[in-house]
Amino acid sequence: MTKGQMESEISKQITQWEKDYLGRGPTSVKTDILRDMIIVVLQGILTPADHKIAETKEGLLSIKKYRADLVESGREQLFGTVKEITGEDVLAFHTDISTKTGERIMVFKLKTNFEQTFK
Length: 119
Prior knowledge:
Blueprint: H1 3-22, E1 28-34, E2 37-43, H2 48-53, H3 57-73, H4 75-86, E3 90-98, E4 103-110
Antiparallel strand pairs: 1-2, 2-4, 3-4
InterPro entries: MpsC
Protein name: Na+-translocating membrane potential-generating system MpsC domain-containing protein
Domain Na+-translocating membrane potential-generating system MpsC: 2-111
């Protein structure tokens, strides 16, 4: 599998996970393999109601915490997806959501410089 094909497959599988686990998927997903990281940017994940609630600071913090908790509760499935596609174990996982743009970023930190696999 080429780097581009692998990035595409990760995007596809994470989109499916979002649909199956969280109930709705993003409008677009872009995955990049960079050194020992897999960086996934998901756009269009907030509902119109989420955007409305996020208009206040309390609402914004509530949305960020709730969405982070949801993703954390499914992290083992996400790790399994990354391992299945890449064959690599995930050492660390970082995620955040922008309530302004409706975009989530996920960063999977791997044990090795996985990008070198493709050179």
